[in-house]
Design a protein that fits this description.
about 110 residues; alpha+beta; Pantoate--beta-alanine Ligase, Chain: A,domain 2
Length: about 110
């Protein structure tokens, strides 16, 4: 029985990690467009995690760092555990340069 729980827990952790990885990547893509913002990046990541993780994650924290040239989105959470006393933590970071429009001078 313990082996079955360990295998299921590993599957939960891997699935949760994939969701968080994809969410921060989508967030940074949304935030790096010319019209993008740190708020849009955070909102996109949170929305994706909420729609794909159901009740799998707890203690979710998504943060963004932005300057005129670069955007970074970080997420960390705890995966719900099937094994008493075990609280696996996951995290992911995505970073990308921002799109900047530079007009040509005549």
């Amino acid at each position: 029985m313990g082996l079955v729980l360990a295998v299921l827990q590993a599957a939960f952790v891997l699935h949760a990690q994939a969701i968080v990885d994809a969410a921060v990547q989508e967030g940074v893509l949304a935030g790096t467009t010319e019209e993008g913002s740190a708020e849009l990046a955070q909102q996109t990541a949170l929305s994706m995690i909420a729609s794909h993780s159901d009740a799998l994650l707890t203690d979710l924290d998504v943060t963004t760092e932005s300057n005129p040239l670069q955007m970074t989105v970080r997420a960390q959470a705890t995966v719900r555990s099937l094994i008493p006393g075990y609280s696996p933590a996951i995290s992911s970071v995505a970073s990308s340069p921002r799109e900047v429009f530079i007009s040509e001078t005549p």
